[in-house]
Amino acid sequence: MNDNNDSKSLKRVRITAMRQTVYRDLMARYENPIEHTCDIAVGQTFISVDGERPEGLCESAWESMRPFVQALARGEGNFYDGWMQNPQSAMISCNDGFRPVSFYLETI
What we know:
Elements: H1 4-8, E1 13-20, H2 24-30, E2 45-48, H3 59-73, E3 89-93, E4 101-107
Antiparallel strand pairs: 1-2, 1-4, 3-4
């Protein structure tokens, strides 16, 4: 956990659900039927404060993006030597192989 001096210097990171893809063919072939999956809606936003998981953000999605959010919160960026047009951002997908959601992460 960060002490107060460290957390004051951390940036907030906006996490925006940009797109969800659904692979029905893979679901039919490999997934056991489940009644409830993802609560994330395209366009939904979350704010990470002090590099922490925002309330309501899926824990599995968080684990996929956590290193990027925490790096952005520390003021780091320019991942993979110029991958993103905005060097203080990243596009990360959750790890659901049947219905992945792509999230845009940006410092604010």
